[in-house]
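Title: Request for sanity check on NADP-dependent oxidoreductase domain-containing protein prediction

Description:
We are preparing a figure and want to confirm that the structure record we downloaded matches what your pipeline produces today. Could someone re-run it with the sequence below and paste the raw structure tokens into this thread? We only need the token string, no images.
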Amino acid sequence: MPSPFEPCPPPESALARYRLLSPTAGVHVSPIQLGGMSIGDQWVELGMGSMDKESSFKLLDAQNGSSERIIGEWAEKRRRRNEKEKLVCAALEKVAAEVGTQSVTAVAIAYLMQKTPYVFPIIGGRKVEHLIQNIEALDISLSDEQIKHLESVVPFDPGFPAYIIGAGMHYIPEFTATANFDKMPALQPIRPSLKSAST
């Protein structure tokens, strides 16, 4: 019987690093969190959509990014993107090339996870490519310059109430008029570990 104090074995892959929450207890993330709920037809009566076995296999066999090309071509022909969306897509493509991936989705997820602490996006998908892109985001480490570039292409509207109280970088006049504050340093987000990136 192994000792409970021995370090857990290294993960077999980047996904295994996150999927197996407790190696000694065998606790796994639910398939629902990995997008598996979209496959099958058990929930069709509740309006959750339907994918029969043949469609599910076709989905799982899809490869080489053809779906992204088709959707991109459709969006371009139907002019479904506005100018801001085009600028953001171009910036994501530029950063994707810099980090060595073709997936702008993986770059967008990596940006979100590395922008602030305690952000754990749950992203579904109906294709294996979506799952692969989500996993690929775990290995992407963006530099401060790349994050600044992504944020510089279009103005960001944080919405209410953030546009009134700010993003936490400075105190608003209503606060500073009533008291003096000492600013705590911002928490840093978790970046991909070297072990994760090398597997």
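Thanks, this matches our download. The CA atoms of residues 171 and 177 lie 10 Å apart.
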